[in-house]
Amino acid sequence: MILSANNQLTLQEFLNLPPGEGDITYELIDGQAIPKVSHTFFHSKLTRTFLYLLDNWSEDKGEICPALAVVLTRRGRDWVPTPDLLYISNERLPTDWDEDGACSVPPDLVIEIISPGQTFGQMAAKAKDYLDAKVLRVWVVDTKARSITVFYPDAAPVTYMGDELLTDSLFAGLEFTVEQVFQKANIR
Predict the structure, then answer these.
(1) Are 154 and 127 in contact (CB under 8 A)?
(2) How far apart are alpha carbons 73 and 63 in whole angstroms?
């Protein structure tokens, strides 16, 4: 279901919408409130695992938030995606930011886990939109391929699989293999 199929929502109208019924989360895309795909069991387990890994690493470095909407710009229009997980460093997050709403600052990292019905191509296009909106890194996690593809603003994406060590100078001290992530999530 799409809210406001004929009328274009402004950012403020979208942010003022009442919460969706049940477990529905909406994203603002091209003036429309589009429901986000519901999470599956593997998706939820991977989100929890990344939350654990990043939370342990990020103590005093920034904030890790699952399913937090973020206000960005996409192709010159307001865009409010809800990534599966985001990390925003203390350097980017204003010290006085204490709002109970969508994040108004582009995060350092967005993690998107491919859900059933989504393709890697769709997620790669979304990753480009995030980068164009000043997000510094995007990780696209593919449960079927058991891979993590890292998208950079100034370099070609890199796909990690198996026992390849994922490291990044932007996240000094954070390192793990894709296999460690899937094992920690107990996904065979």
Answers:
(1) no
(2) 21
What's the whole-model pTM score? 0.88
Question: Cα separation of 110 and 138, whole Å?
Answer: 5
In a 10 Å sphere around its CB, with 0-12 CB exposed, 13-18 middle and 19+ buried, how is residue 159 labelled? middle
As beta bridge partners, residue 135 has none
Residue 122 CB neighbour total at 10 angstroms: 13
Q: Spell out the per-residue pLDDT of the chain, length 188, in tens.
A: 444 455 788 888 888 887 766 567 787 788 888 887 777 888 899 999 999 999 989 988 999 999 899 999 999 999 999 999 999 999 998 777 777 788 989 999 999 999 888 999 999 999 999 999 999 999 999 999 999 999 999 999 999 999 999 999 999 999 999 999 999 999 98
Burial 53-75 (b: 16+ CB within 10 A, else e): bbeebbeebbbbbbebbbbbebe
Cβ(34)–Cβ(27) below 8 Å: yes
